[in-house]
Every structure is written in C-alpha cells, then in structure tokens.
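Objective 1b: paired records.
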Amino acid sequence: MVACLKSTILTSDETPMTLQIDDLQFGYAGSGGFHLRVPSLTLEAGTTCLLLGPSGSGKSTFLGLLAGVLTPERGRIALAGQDMSQLSGARMDKFRGTHIGFIYQTLNLIPWLSTRENIALGLAFAPQRRARLSAGVADTITDFMTRLDLDAGTLGDQPAGLLSLGQQQRVAAARALVGAPDLVLADEPSSALDVVNTEKFFDLLMAGLDRQRQVLLVVSHDARLAPRFDRVINMADLTGAPKMGDMSR
C-alpha cells in the first residue's frame, strides 16, 4: 500500500513560498523497494521541518529529489520559483550551488583543506550567494565560525581532518549556511554525536539560520528532535513504512 502526504504545510499567506512540491512520485522496484508519493507540500521561508523515519525508509532518497540529484518519475519540485524539472546538467549544478545548502551524513569535508577553506567551498560555485554577503568572504567565515562555536583564531587554518567530530559537523553546517541559500538540507547530521553534542549542534544550527528567508529540512531517525521544529513529517506518510510514534501537533 502506498501512503500519501495529503496536507499542505503553510505558515502564512503573506510569507513568500520557498519550496513547492506537486504530485511527486518516485520509487524503486523489488521486494526491498518502496514508492514515494507526495501530492502537495509547501514549505514557506523561515520554516524548520523534520522528516522522521527509520534507517532505510527513503529519507535520503527524498533529499536527493529535493536537491536535484535524483529525477522524479512524475511531478514538480519548484524552489525559489524555479521548476527544477526544467533544468538539466550544468544549469542544475549552478542552481543547486546557488539555492541549496547540504549537510551530508558523511560530512564530505576535504580533510587536507583548512576549516576556512572548507567553509568557503559553499561559495565557490555560487556567485549569488557571495553577492548576499554583507561583509567580505573572510569576515563572513569568521562570523559563521564564531556563531557555530568554532575558534577562528585557533581552528581557522587547521586542516579539517584534524578537527574533532563535533567540530567537523559544525564546519559542514557553516559550509551549508554561508551565503544564505534558500533551502538547507541535512541528512542525519547528528547521527554520530552523543546526546549532549547533538543538543549543542542543533542549538548552533538553528542560531545560524536566516529565519526570514531560509527553509531548513532535516531528516533523522531521532524522534527526540521533534520539539525543535516548526513542522514534523513522518516518513510513513510518504511511503507507508511503519511510523516511529505519533508526531502529530
């Protein structure tokens, strides 16, 4: 049986739309496959959303669709007014760099580059994100390091591979947030952290958001994170998988 997300998430008629999904369908065949169907979903600028589900339930696949890495079988994903299905190749890569920040579960830092250089990668192929900076790149990176509790003086020139796991997580968050992309996606960003460091990480992540213009969508298996978010979607509502508790609000 295929379950659907039937409600539209909307915060205010006066808030400009950031992410709009219509009649999205995607699936994998076989005994271990699943089918994802989202008739209608809208996330407004300023919204923080948690997509909750167990490992293997398709959360990362959904993020891949939103990031334009995967192509839906059917439907429309529009971000910042652009129907992403109309983009391909280099245009999609450019659009992704400008409008989407991604915090990977495996972090994807370049270990021999410094903390500053890794954060700056978020701006490398995104001139529009650089143009949003109110200060220079160096000063902006220093500001993000301070906001994410990273000592710019001590750690700024440190190779990322020498940082602690918690520090690396925060560098990955800064890289995704710098230049205020419209959509910030995070794939199990705290899966390798203990409870205390998970709390600290999300405190800092939320503080680093521009709540006037950005959407944050986090996927996780940890239901304890739910109270931190404006909206909670259970993966079972998308795929028909077993629910991880009642997350209704």
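Objective 1b, second protein:
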Amino acid sequence: MMLLFVIIEMERAAKENSRLLTICHVLRYTPFWSAVKRVISQGQVGEAVSIQLNENVGYWHVAHSFVRGNWSN
C-alpha cells in the first residue's frame, strides 16, 4: 500500500510541475529470465552458439539513459 501512495504522490508532483512521469521496471532478475539462463546453462536446448535479444527502444534512447552497467558484479 505504501508503494501505491508513493506513486500517487509522484503523479501529483508531476502534474503540479507540468512534467511527464514514466515508471520503468528492470526485469533482468525476474524468475522468467533466471529460468531462461538455467535452461541454456544446463544445455537443455543444445549448445547455444548465438543469442539475440531485441529491446525495442529508439536509437536516441540508448544515447542518454539506456547505458549498460557492470551488472555481472
């Protein structure tokens, strides 16, 4: 319930300041991606020779806010 209150307050502040509010969720540690990693690591689908993941954001988004960090640590 506290999270809902915070989100409502963020929306109120955005409106008062004529700003847009966008809330994004990082999903790299969700059970789904953990399961994908496990299946590939265990060789259940054979040897992985190539993996392609498309993140459908515009090229301009990468330039300023979608920079990859050192997530493996």
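The CA atoms of residues 13 and 19 lie 8 Å apart. DSSP finds three helices and no strands in the chain.
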